[in-house]
Design brief:
single chain; about 425 residues; mainly beta; 14-stranded antiparallel β-sheet
Amino acid sequence: MAVGGATGARLPRWIAGLLLAIAVACQPLPDATPMGREATLGPAVSVRHADFEAALSGPVETRFGSGDAAHVLRVALPDSRPIECSLRRGEARFAVDVDRETERLLDALRGDGHAITHRSIYGVRAGAIGGTPYLWVATEFVRTRGEERAWGLVKVASAETAGFVVLCSHAEAGFVASFDRVFEELVGSLRSLEPRVEPIFRQICTTRFGALDVSFASAEVHREGDGSFVLRAVSSEAFPLTRDQLDSYFSRRVERSDAAGILASSRLVFWSDGTRKQDLTLDREEGRWRVRGRFEDAEVDRFLDHDGPIHGRLHHLVALRHRLLPHQPHLVVEHVFWRPSPRRTLSDHIGSGAPARIETDWTRVDNEAPYDQLGRKSWYDGRIRRDQRGFADAGELTVGPVALTVTCVHREGDLEKPPDLRR
């Protein structure tokens, strides 16, 4: 089920370890341990640079970078290492960035005769700060040297806002609320001093499994001067497979289409467990669809066998909104998607030379609740609830024993009904 055209839900390897994951992962230590420590932070401090401004609780030490170098902000904590946040121009990779920063901090703690003798997932969280999605992961560890033994907690959070990648981290026991406050203040207040064009539509949805918000998916739509539309969709996940192992992914898709969501071009970048698996573009050349880039370790450059229209995510957004309204008690919606899948081989996907043709069967659940609908495909049952404008607000997806809850936590702007949804 795609709520509003983008969710964080997928079917990763964690199905096999389903019972173990929730039973043993993400159990915080009691507050009586050092994990319960917090700091009294000072009043908000304004931080200004030539290309950004922000405000966060002090005291704040700054080290501004030049060129492509990151700006570094450090918030001092009593009797602890500082909370460190870096800002750099570019695009976040969320789970990839969080994984790498966590490993960097743990490696640094192994110096001077110390060893990390235990590590486990303390918690994961995906959400939104205003209109900005974020991913947060905490890893508890035991650091030893000789007879010395101390608990620790690495906290890392990643976001992308105002054209900057924000990455905050702290590697000491406790201070979870202090860390969250600094991160949320920075993300919420960060403003670029360069002119930026705001999207006409933006939404962020999160996916929950049990008590964990394990992934997010965001989509924003821009209208270009030539009348075309650009949709940028980002999703990322961090799911505890076992007590000390995460299944993680990150994807970014940029699509150009007309108002009805019929593609003109598309680019997809997909990372899984810290490795870039796909970097593919789809373009229209001389009346044919051409795919170029990398799939796993293989170079790709070929034409699809399919020459007809292909639907983008924008089509999914507007079709489900405008065609599944109260006057439709039952409707089968067909989408022709170009969907490179990490679970299919190069020959299965590229070799077939055709996009995926997907039909979803939607049925009204209750005449008194016309915006509550069921969707069924061969491998899942889904249910979504829509607001009075027809946008999806929340949903459930069931795949065998796996139950996921999707909630759209932020939405702004609107999408007009295109003149033709049946192409």
